[in-house]
Amino acid sequence: MPINLHSFVLLLAAAVITVVVCRKFKLPAMLGYLLVGMLIGPYALGFIQSSDEASHLAEYGIVFLMFTLGLEFNLAKLNAMKRIVFGLGAAQVGAVLVFIAAAVMLAGLDWKAGLVLGAAAAMSSTAMVSKLLSDRGELNAPHGQNAIGILLFQDLAVVPFLIIIPALSLPDGSVTIPLINLQVDQLLFALFLASIKIVFVLVVLLSLGQKIMRPWFNLVAKQHASELFMINILLVTLGTAWLTEAAGLSLALGAFLAGMLIAETEYRYQVEDDIRPFRDLLLGLFFVTVGMNLNFSILISEWGMVLLSLLLLGPVKIGVIAGLAKLFGSTPGSSLRTGFALGQGGEFAFVLLALIAQGGLVPSPILQATTAGVILSMLLTPFLIQHSDKLVLRLASSEWMSLAANLHNIAVRSMAANGHVILCGFGRSGQSLARILSQEDIHFFALDLDPEKVREAASAGESVVYGDAAKREVLIAAGLMRARAIIVTYSDTHSAMKILELAHQLRPEIPVIVRTQDDSDIDLLKNAGAAEVVSEIMEGSLMLASHTMMLLGVPLNKVLRRIRDVRETRYQLIRGFYRGLNDDTDEGDRQQPRLHTLQLTQNAHAIGYTIAELKLDKLQVEIRSIRRRNTPPFQPEQDFQLSTGDVLVLLGEQENLAAAEMLILQGK
């Protein structure tokens, strides 16, 4: 039953309100989507009686998610991770499947029911886990690599499961192979055909795709048309997904392969930015449809089965995954974090459960209780991952020892340092700064969260250790009380605010210099106590201006004075910009102050008012300059009176500028 416009508008309104509430209370947005689906679905308020049409649309959210995962895991990286993907991943799917199958058979069901329920339980939520780990910046952490590697194998394992489950529902018997007149078991023959399909599709896509993809994208990019580039991305993503589906495989596998192929080209990052809006929108819809499947009557009538399925998908699955991760060489803390990340049901579980229902392999009450358990486990996952650090410290005593050893290592390395500079982050900017400080015989001590980078830099003799500068214990161990300054060399406002808060609490007088991408957070960081805020975009503009002025013959002392004045006024002279059609439209860009010109027509409300009387400061908008008739632009005083024909240059954020324009023109 298709979703009509009325129901769809209700769905969007409920999603917006719920997600706003979740963000206000710092809860994951996907939790809000699940709650929306539960509330408006057929088993609660009943605003939407069927989720079939939405489910079909939401499947494309999984397609785009798998595509972006493919962009992250190119062929070289997948080969480097083969031990995790095909070792740990295969062990996880096999172990969970066998454990669940054994439990189901002990409960009195046959081996077919045990196998299919075990296959569904082995799946975890690629959509949820990858999003949560990405938001926490943990995709490249050891447990993040374990989780993504296991998820990749699960996605590959779905393919044979999609073939096995319908085959199991067929009546026992054999099939005759044409030409050779050989009779074989139907299940074995179906698996044989599927294997041939998989090998053929993989060989064709990975061999021919690499030869075609780069020249094709070069051809499209040379047209310099952003809409054509976007259409091409959709063509490649959905076209490859269609090819794999036509071959009897999954849409998600095809999208993943398309992402891997594009990851080998220089267009990877542009493609990732362009596809993000589609992925996030459809993924949100997917989680809404997942919530719609929760039948509250089943929760009451079959609460015992629901609780059992939740325990098997939660604590039992977490324990199995953590144990396997430890066997494959992970630390106890990393193993537990991997288990917490994957201890839930997944989106592909719903696909497999639907096939199980069609084949009648499992009694309906057990199937519905399993579905409810999968949904509840997904609801709990954001909280598990959010509090995983605290849980790991409680459950793994060695994690305390590892944390203490790391702090001891930092303290020992920094013990001899006095009057040094603490560098938070040792990326490209941090390393460049470190070299300049060394030239001036200024001692530094760097902290970074990339273990490989720390290992290589430390072995080369650099004063750098592994540690999170946004944690109190790490800053103290790095010699905060003896340091001369703290420099935040990476552009992360959230982390920088934590460092500023800790520095203010522990040693208020120490200067903290913060790097930021643009001018949107300069005032926020300054008000939080930053001694200086260095904006990459602003400093780039200053360097362009200084070189230009010197080439044009402006005296060096005048150039330096001009740059100093701009910096001392927090880049006020060069803040704001005029927006054009070709400018980026990401979230960070929308929050930046911009310039907007506005001409006062004959009936404008502001005519005759002074600037002070308009009270634009309440809207956080200022009049940067005014041009009157043929006079050059000038910066007006607060008592300047406006008249017809004046052209105002306003500075502010997009939403505030719109409100200021309505006030100036209409008085509203």
From TrEMBL:
Subcellular localization(s) per the UniProt record: Membrane
Family: Belongs to the monovalent cation:proton antiporter 2 (CPA2) transporter (TC 2.A.37) family.
Membrane topology: Multi-pass membrane protein
UniProt cross-references to InterPro entries, sorted A to Z: Cation/H_exchanger_TM (IPR006153), K/H_exchanger (IPR004771), Na+/solute_symporter_sf (IPR038770), NAD(P)-bd_dom_sf (IPR036291), RCK_C (IPR006037), RCK_C_sf (IPR036721), RCK_N (IPR003148)
Chief place where the protein resides: membrane
Organism: Deefgea tanakiae
Domain RCK C-terminal: start-end pairs: 583-666
Keyword Cytoplasm assigned: no
Record-given protein name: Monovalent cation:proton antiporter-2 (CPA2) family protein
Residue span, RCK N-terminal domain: 418-535
NCBIfam families associated with the record: 2a37 (TIGR00932)
UniProt keywords, alphabetically: Antiport, Ion transport, Membrane, Potassium, Potassium transport, Transmembrane, Transmembrane helix, Transport
A Pfam match: TrkA_C
Residues spanning the membrane: 6-22, 29-48, 54-73, 85-107, 113-134, 146-168, 188-208, 250-269, 281-300, 306-328, 340-360, 366-385
Lineage top rank: taxon: Bacteria
